[in-house]
C-alpha cells in the first residue's frame, strides 16, 4: 500500500509541569481540508478521540483541549496541563484513504492496510512538582543525570 498523505508530528517528547500550556503540531504532506483528528492514548488503554475535524471538541473531553489549523498545519493545544493528561497524543488524517497516523493502528479493515509515518508520537511526562526549599530525592524514573531543577516545565512553542 502506498501512502499518498504522510503525517509528521512534533515535538516527539516534551517534559511538562502542571499548569503548562502545551502545543503539539502535525503537518500533512498535502492540504487535508480539516480532515484531521487528535487522539490520546494511555498505557493499556484504547486511543481516545479528543478533537475531530481539526477543531471540534469530542463530547466529554475537557475544555482545556483545543484544536486549530488549516491546510497542511494543525495544532493540538492543552491550555493548562493536568497530571491526568500524561499520555501519548497523536494525529490522524481522514481526508484520503487509507487514514494516515503517526502510530500503526492495532486493528485494520479487512483487506486494507493503514499507512504510518516514521516519526514517533508525542509522550507527555510530568516531572515531580517543586517543593520550595524542601529536600527531595529524585527517583531514577523521573530524573536524568545532569538535569537541573529548573530544566523542566517548558512549554512547546
From TrEMBL:
GO terms for cellular component: extracellular region; immunoglobulin complex; plasma membrane. Residues 21-93 form the Immunoglobulin V-set domain. Residues 127-157 are annotated as: Disordered. The keyword rRNA processing does not apply. Keywords: Adaptive immunity, Immunity, Immunoglobulin. It comes from the Eukaryota. Coiled coil: none annotated. This is Immunoglobulin V-set domain-containing protein.
Amino acid at each position: 500500500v502506498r501512502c499518498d498523505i504522510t503525517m509528521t508530528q512534533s515535538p516527539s517528547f516534551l517534559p511538562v509541569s502542571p499548569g503548562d500550556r502545551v502545543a503539539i503540531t502535525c503537518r500533512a504532506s498535502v492540504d487535508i481540508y480539516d480532515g484531521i483528528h487528535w487522539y490520546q492514548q494511555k498505557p493499556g488503554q484504547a486511543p481516545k478521540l479528543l478533537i475531530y475535524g481539526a477543531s471540534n471538541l469530542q463530547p466529554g473531553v475537557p475544555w482545556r483541549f483545543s484544536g486549530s489549523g488549516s491546510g497542511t498545519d494543525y495544532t493540538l493545544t492543552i491550555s493548562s496541563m493536568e497530571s491526568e493528561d500524561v499520555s501519548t497524543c497523536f494525529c490522524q488524517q481522514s481526508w484520503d484513504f487509507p487514514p494516515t497516523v503517526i502510530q500503526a493502528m492495532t486493528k485494520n479493515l479487512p483487506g486494507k492496510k493503514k499507512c504510518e509515518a516514521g516519526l514517533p508520537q508525542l509522550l507527555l511526562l510530568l516531572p515531580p512538582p517543586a517543593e520550595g526549599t524542601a529536600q527531595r530525592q529524585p527517583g531514577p524514573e523521573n530524573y536524568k543525570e545532569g538535569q537541573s531543577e529548573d530544566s523542566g516545565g517548558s512549554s512547546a512553542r
